[in-house]
């Protein structure tokens, strides 16, 4: 079961890595969500979507990660440079 969310999230990388998405979402070490820092234990999947170009949406990079509190689906919006939580799985 999952619930849809669309909210900003902070994504942490190793100190030497850039905070940009790309192949190898296993570089993500933690996410900051609702006042907590959740360690990322595993990267399950990652993909890119072009978005609804006819509605002005740009390309997004998605990752699905396992944390201490569940599975989170995150998306990086290239147009804004922002990470967002899109779905949380129980």
Pick out its properties.
DUF6504; 90 residues; DUF6504 family protein; 7-stranded antiparallel beta sheet
Describe the protein in words:
With 90 residues, the chain is mainly β. The chain has one domain. The chain is 0% helix and 58% strand. The protein has no helices and seven strands. The relative contact order is 0.28. InterPro entries: DUF6504. It holds the Pfam family DUF6504. Residues 1-90 form the DUF6504 domain.
N-to-C series of helices and strands: EEEEEEE
The proportion of strand residues reads over 45%
**Alpha-carbon distance between the two ends:** 6 Å
* Helix-strand makeup class: mainly beta
Which oligomeric state applies?
A: single chain
The low-confidence parts are none
Tally of individual helices: 0
* Overall tally of domains: 1
Q: Measured on Cα atoms, how large is the radius of gyration?
A: 13 Å
Specify the biggest β-sheet.
7 strands, antiparallel
Tell me, rounded to a whole number, the average pLDDT: 87
**What percentage of residues falls in helices of 4 or more residues?**
under 10%
Please tell me what the overall shape is: globular
Number of strands: 7
Strand numbers in spatial order across the main sheet: 1-7-6-5-4-3-2
């Amino acid at each position: 079961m999952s619930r849809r969310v669309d909210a900003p999230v902070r994504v942490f990388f190793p100190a030497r890595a850039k905070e940009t998405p790309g192949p190898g979402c296993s570089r993500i070490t933690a996410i900051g969500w609702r006042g907590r820092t959740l360690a990322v234990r595993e990267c399950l999947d990652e993909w890119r979507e072009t978005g609804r170009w006819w509605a002005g949406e740009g390309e997004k990079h998605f990752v699905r990660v396992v944390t201490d509190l569940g599975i989170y689906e995150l998306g990086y919006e290239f147009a804004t440079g922002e990470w967002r939580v899109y779905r949380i799985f129980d």
